[in-house]
Design brief:
The chain is built from four helices and five strands. The protein is α+β, with helices and mostly antiparallel strands. InterPro entries: 6-PTP_synth/QueD, 6-PTP_synth/QueD_sf.
Length: 136
């Protein structure tokens, strides 16, 4: 019997959608106001879901406190109130789109979750725009 547990979190961060190898005109055409050279910010919502077998001893798939600590250490502390382009090493050469942010978060959390568990990340950039990533 496989069950999914989920934990919600949030962080506030600034970013700029921009490719260094493109002209200003192309960046503006593709990314529009999200290419603002002074950056812009979002109040990101994050849902992390882990699916696995229930441990017969504890009754947990994974202790939610453990999942909360992983999210705090891997996402909230390094991303919250940061400029993703300037302050977060993973985005030094990676455009911090919602899609790329979700994949980076998934990779950071994946290394802390048992390999036989499935992991899904849902990242809300706004109330209407969100990305889901389950790994490859």
């Amino acid at each position: 019997m496989r069950v999914t547990i989920s934990r919600k979190a949030h962080f506030n961060a600034a970013h700029r959608l921009h490719r260094k190898d493109w002209t200003s005109e192309k960046n503006n055409a593709v990314f529009g106001k999200c290419n603002n050279p002074n950056f812009h910010g979002h109040n990101y919502g994050l849902t992390v879901s882990v699916t696995g077998k229930i441990d017969p001893e504890t009754g947990f798939v994974l202790d939610v406190k453990v999942l909360a600590d992983i999210i705090l250490e891997e996402v909230e502390i390094p991303f919250d109130h940061k400029n993703l382009n300037l302050d977060v090493p993973e985005f030094q050469d990676l455009n911090p789109t919602a899609e790329n942010i979700a994949v980076v978060i998934w990779n950071k959390i994946r290394k802390r979750i048992q390999p036989d568990f499935d992991l899904e990340i849902v990242l809300n950039e706004t109330d209407r725009n969100f990305v889901t990533y389950k790994g490859e």
